[in-house]
Amino acid sequence: MEEIKFLEGKRLTVVGYGSQGHAHALNLHDLGMDVTVGLRQGSKSWEKAENDGVKVAVVGEAVKGADVVMILAPDEAQPELYRSEIEENLKSGAYLGFAHGFNIHYERITPREDVNVFMVAPKGPGHMVREIFEGGHGVPCLAAVHNDISEDTRDIAHAWANGVGRRVGVIETTFKEETETDLFGEQAVLCGGVTELMQAGFDTLVEAGYNPEVAYFECVHEMKLIIDMVYEKGFAAMRDSISNTAEYGDYITGKKIITKESKEAMKGVLKDIQRGKFAKEFIEETENGYKFMNKERAEYSDSKIEEVGSKMRKMVFSK
Ligand SMILES: NC(=O)C1=CN([C@@H]2O[C@H](COP(=O)(O)OP(=O)(O)OC[C@H]3O[C@@H](n4cnc5c(N)ncnc54)[C@H](OP(=O)(O)O)[C@@H]3O)[C@@H](O)[C@H]2O)C=CC1
Ligand SMILES: CC[C@](O)(C(C)=O)C(=O)O
Ligand SMILES: [Mg+2]
Ligand SMILES: [Mg+2]
């Protein structure tokens, strides 16, 4: 692959072997790159990474002498990890990478001035970045450069993006644009918006006395099949495939559900991201031992929608 030649002969380190970490490490390893995974001593990911065939070392050792270091630990863990294990071990002139702009944009990490800083943000969950790559295709990535002392950091960023995402497309951005749009998208649309939409639809049908299993298929399970058509061919092709009855209902009802008020709420969400309010609250939550998140996790895992979903998935996927 012509595009990833800038990584050839370089020592690449991926710190973390979670959702994004395993995908970046394995995709680049499969393309013949020299990849080491950096983990903390006793990490539960250690054996998995070794079994997957990549070299593993403790973070400080993996960073020492590396040409490119991509930090793929959780955002909230990165500042302490950078200060304790990465900063003093990074060689001068190395390339330091991120998959999300959060810590640079909100100034939680200020990298040493003698290192190059870039971002490659795949536009998809890490497990899909790996699965789609294994299927011979790729997930597109955003790329940005924050510090370019070597004057070739853009080449490194594009090479990394083309390797991890199998050359399907790289869009240039800035740390600010990626951070704000990514946070907005995951909160208002992709994760927060979609799960609340499915939950509200499911609850409305169940509260009206309909069979929860029918409600689940209608409001959750079928979502993927409809969205797969949008993903592959766009809104018009999806609307072409559904019945005229559904298409008419789509035009007249969608706007009753996502109203002017919903759009105003979205603007409020964006403003809080732009002024750093969301970031501040998220960091406080992590410093507070994830109390709110643990409560939400427990409530959702005990919920009716999850109970029905588990039964329905057994039915659908055991065949
Ligand atoms: N999840 C996704 O799909 C996406 C994530 N991103 C970005 O990618 C980055 C990584 O996110 P994500 O993949 O979700 O992260 P994960 O939560 O999946 O990362 C878990 C990995 O990080 C390691 N880890 C956790 N804490 C520490 C620590 N203090 N020191 C060393 N290693 C640690 C874990 O090791 P251990 O086994 O020791 O716990 C594990 O290997 C973030 O910047 C995120 O915003 C960008 C696009 C999508
Ligand atoms: C949509 C959530 C995401 O931004 C992602 C998978 O792209 C994340 O932070 O995990
Ligand atoms: Mg994100
Ligand atoms: Mg994202």
Automatic annotation (TrEMBL):
HAMAP family tied to this protein: IlvC
Amino-acid positions noted as binding substrate in the UniProt annotation, renumbered to this chain: 243
Keyword set, alphabetical order: Amino-acid biosynthesis, Branched-chain amino acid biosynthesis, Magnesium, Metal-binding, NADP, Oxidoreductase
Record function comment: Involved in the biosynthesis of branched-chain amino acids (BCAA). Catalyzes an alkyl-migration followed by a ketol-acid reduction of (S)-2-acetolactate (S2AL) to yield (R)-2,3-dihydroxy-isovalerate. In the isomerase reaction, S2AL is rearranged via a Mg-dependent methyl migration to produce 3-hydroxy-3-methyl-2-ketobutyrate (HMKB). In the reductase reaction, this 2-ketoacid undergoes a metal-dependent reduction by NADPH to yield (R)-2,3-dihydroxy-isovalerate.
EC number(s) on file: 1.1.1.86
Domain of life: Bacteria
Molecular function via GO: ketol-acid reductoisomerase activity
Annotated family: Belongs to the ketol-acid reductoisomerase family.
Binding site for Mg(2+) 1: 182, 186
Sites where the protein binds NADP(+): 17-20, 40, 43, 45, 126
Free-text comment on the cofactor: Binds 2 magnesium ions per subunit.
Pathway info: Amino-acid biosynthesis; L-isoleucine biosynthesis; L-isoleucine from 2-oxobutanoate: step 2/4; Amino-acid biosynthesis; L-valine biosynthesis; L-valine from pyruvate: step 2/4
Domain KARI C-terminal knotted, chain residue ranges per copy: 174-319
Gene coding for it: ilvC
UniProt name for this protein: Ketol-acid reductoisomerase (NADP(+))
